[in-house]
Amino acid sequence: MANFDQRTWCRRASNRPRLGGALISALAIATVISLGACESRVSIRGNMPDIEEMEAINPGVDSKEDVVARLGTPSSVSTFMDNTWYYIGQRVEQFAFYAPEVTDRSVLVIEFDQSGIVGDTRYLTIYDGHAIDPVSRETPTEGKELTVMQQLLGNFGRLPTDPGNPNQSPF
Predict the structure, then answer these.
(1) Rounded distance, CA 115 to CA 149, Å?
(2) Which CATH number fits domain 38-131: 3.30.750, 3.30.1450, 3.40.1000, 3.40.50?
(3) In whole angstroms, what is the distance from residue 82 CA to residue 73 CA?
(4) Which of 60, 83, 103, 144 is most buried, judged by most C-beta within 10 A?
(5) Helix and strand element counts for the chain (H, E)
């Protein structure tokens, strides 16, 4: 301890390289940005009315105009008869580079009678859905299958012989 000189120690400490404030700020910003990239993205799609608005629909009383005034236009209408309306909404979350995942789906089905009055309402969630398997079969087609070369070379000789005759077809 006898050799300890405070002035020498302070001089040595001041000669050491320091991390500048700019470097620390850059590291802090890079850390915040990299953590922000890991945040999950949430997107809400569709037209899903509030529970209070859905409960306000009275079967046997409300008409199509009343439903549109309360809930807005439906997401979809039945294909063959416009007496069934669908209000469809879903919540999708995606974390970083992973595939998006549907976390919530809800469907409000409103059926009308022939006079346009609400007959029935149903509320379906993601748990009411069913997974379907698409059919992988191919529909057979008549005719012969041509290779690419047969398709390219098959048109030679089908050109009109008289270009001045508008009534002559190449086929």
Answers:
(1) 61
(2) 3.30.1450
(3) 13
(4) 83
(5) 5, 5
